[in-house]
Write a structure and sequence with these properties.
With 102 residues, this protein is an alpha+beta fold. It has three helices and seven strands.
């Protein structure tokens, strides 16, 4: 297991989000720390899979209050910095989004 802390600046080519093409705005993206977990095969009897990755878990946000991306990471964080944050239905399962709305 290890922790990542992604930062970057929105410059260069435009970002394609959904059906929009968003031009660079020069803003800095500071994501919250995220945990990454990698599981390897330790079954020595299966020579083909021994030592290979069997499970990869990424983007588990550890502290949503850090950074300027509303506690999001990955493409959702890039959308926030680009000025086009994801909607509630894109962030939560439908029943949770409806529950939060009402």
């Amino acid at each position: 297991r290890f922790t990542t802390h992604t930062t970057g600046t929105f410059r260069g080519k435009p970002l394609r989000l959904r059906s929009k093409l968003i031009p660079p705005n020069g803003k800095v993206m500071k994501c919250p720390p995220t945990s990454v977990s990698i599981t390897y095969s330790v079954d020595k009897s299966d020579i083909d899979s021994y030592g290979k990755i069997t499970k990869l878990v990424t983007d588990m946000v550890m502290d949503r209050q850090v950074g300027n991306t509303m506690g999001l990471s990955g493409i959702a964080a890039a959308a926030v910095v680009a000025g086009n944050p994801p909607g509630m239905l894109e962030l939560y399962p439908p029943f949770v989004a409806v529950e939060r709305f009402f």
